[in-house]
Amino acid sequence: MSALGNTSGMVPNPMHTLKPSGNLRRRQLTSRLFVSLTLAAAGLAVAVLLILVYYAAKNGASQLSFSFLTAQLPAPGGIVPGGGMGPALAGTAEVILIATIIALPVGVLTAIYLSEFASRRIGRVLTTALEQMAGLPTIIVGVFIFGLIVQRAGPSAIAAGIALAIVEVPLIARASIESLRRVPGTLREAADALGVARWRTILGVILPTAANGIITATILAVARAAGETAPVLLTDQPVVSQAYQLDPRHTVATVPVEILQLLLSGTTSAVDKAWGMAFVLMGLILLVNIGARVWLRRSERKRGV
Amino acid sequence: MSLSSEEPPEQAGPRLRLPGAATADSPAAPSPESAASARSSVARETVFTSRGVSVNYGAKRALDNVTLDIESNYATAFIGPSGCGKSTLLRCFNRMNDSITGFRIDGDLLYHGHDLYGSEANRVEVRRRIGMVFQKPNPFPKSIYDNVAWAARNLGMKQNLDERVERALRSAALWDEVKDRLKASALGLSGGQQQRLCIARAIAIEPDVVLLDEPASALDPIATAAIEDLITALKSQYTIVIVTHNMQQAMRVADKTAFFSLDESRIGTLIEYENTDKLFSRPSDKRTEAYITGQFG
Amino acid sequence: MDKVDRRANGALKWLALGGGALVFLVLLAIVYQILSGASGAFDKFGLAFIFHKNWVPASNQYGAWTFVYGTLVTGVGSVLISTVLGVSIGLFLSLMAPRRVAAIIGPLVEMLAAIPSVIIGLIGIYLICPFIKTDIEPWVHSAFGWIPIFGAPQPVGNSIFAAILVLTIMVVPIIAALTRDLFLTVPGELRDGAEALGATRWEMIRGVVIPTTQSGIVAAAVLGFGRAVGEAIAVAQVIGGVPADPLNLFKGGYTGASVIANTFTSPVSNLNTSVLFYIAAILLVISIGSNLAAQRISRSFGHAL
User: CA nearest A30 in B: which residue?
Assistant: First the structure.
């Protein structure tokens, strides 16, 4: 390989040193300062998360036991010690079941409409509506259902379920749209080229391909709904019994609202119970969140996305 | 198009103009004959020294064993088929490959004798002295004036900023077209104008070297001709290294040309490096001859 | 395409359209329900309701100013802090952190958003408020007490300031996630161009990245504001629930969302309920308004947030 032209000596020319010149040192110091500030901000956020988790664990883990998870609710007023979160756990499960039974089909159908059928104009209007619904304060959802149902038929688990469905639908729909859009166009083209009818393509090819994302979205929406207090507070109160009560036409206990009640009574034993419930709730939600993400990433990697 | 004939302004930091480089004394764009005589009369320094330089991206070797010298105030062209490492080598000169994951460079790459990748080399300082213009014009979403002035402001060149901007735009042959709309957005310019703007903002901070990575490949022929005239005019003040896939461009613009290609193991490497006229008329290597006669490429 | 396919295609399309229509209808129903529930109070008090301070439910005197004021102060205060922190974290996650670090810290910050508000309120009561009372308030008062908003420390620590802190914890992850995605859309060529001109990393961010994304940042902040304004439960637990008009950040206060959460289930009269609907209507207007504003801002910039 010939390449040699004039070779000046290997002696470094001091006029062209590559050390910082002029104001560079100061500017790089400034840059490093701001970079570390952003690192500090991220560190602060993580620290806050860890503190929250630690504190909940510290105050609530001691409550953890099988009987705590299954025993009846503490007596109202907080004076009589004892009690657990059994009915509240069952009630939360029931309420989010009702919510998801409504929200999953509505959310997925809306997503299918937006990604497969809608014209651009309708699509934009509907997307705006979804964004609005996603940003609605949950307390307003509670007020809405109160006016619509509770004022006419009294409070109930069903009312709370419908309220939570309104919270879940935009979450499921948004993520489902993303998943549907990510289905490669080649799959659709191949189905079209084979002369397959639209509905078969959507239900048989596109939906299954997007299924992982939709399932993850639903799980995350459920986790979110499980922690919502405001909509349930306004539609599923008062809870009269300490025992397991699962008739959806009446009020059922739920974990977040029960935590709030215990807090309001203020006695030590009540607050201890509240911490215990908070620890369980937070633990479940965080585990579900982490689990869903890990699962989604792993399944995407397997598919080579 | 006229060259600036003013004295270099005050600037923070050492003067970057080479001793003996033509500035106030140089007339307008040199013709080929006077270019030849100018070449022999200016004191040449070696700007870049490459000895056995190889580049890896992760496990994949992109460039193998390149040894050449780039000389001051020349326009040196890197030509060759795509994927043979010419842009990779160019981007090594101003350390733009550093952020690519898995990037590793072996061998010696020196700038005026200083190791570009040594522990004493400050990456930001490297880029301040060795500027780059990219293939696709990438003006900032700012006004024309601010595009040119931005880097100068960072460097603390706040005095006589207006003159600095004007001088850079004149040197880039853009001044007359934009002087009445300096505050307008740079994104409103045509592709050729945007590219000249990118050249203007590169030279506004008075670098030592200007690297151009296929600067005209995204432009139409008229804009391309304007850029080529620019390069010919700029090399009296700066050292130019240009990557191009257009052989005629290299012939028109470059004093020396380096031909890169893929070797037997499909790794990019330097085949031949010569004065431009000799490379294109009497190439030493068969592969060079095959490329320039269009047998592949 | 045979008849079965054609019918099935149509059925799917109509089902999907039904989902979308349902979303739309529910949104309209919410607006209608809230406005009609508020109509009683609106007829009685008119728009002046927003600006009057008097709040004595027992004697049918209602004025929402305390809540409007508290909502705005806590909303703006938390958004200001959250934007600074959130944008810093967004910058860190998108432009500074190595990919592996960002892959861990990013989800951790998002976990912060997943924590139910009642638990944040719980920790607010038992960790944040005492901390404010014993550590922050005395320090701020001694250093800045001459500024009226940092006035005399409160005995309890429940205050507007506590609410701002709690809201910040909830809004920062939203802004961080939104701005992280935003900064990733800045074309690499622009960043390369800045670095090739000898700019430090901070100069590139300040000179190129942020100016390019500034309307997106504003949109994210506005969305954060909508979230902060709608938060009822966590704020209710830490803000003190005192319908006063505090110019002192460390005095107790009240917001629209939290007064609804606190008093909706035990109104003193039908008028009381209607008034709370009226406050919900105000919140609805703020929420829809900020959502639309955020969409308009980010669309004028040319990409969806």
Answer: B154
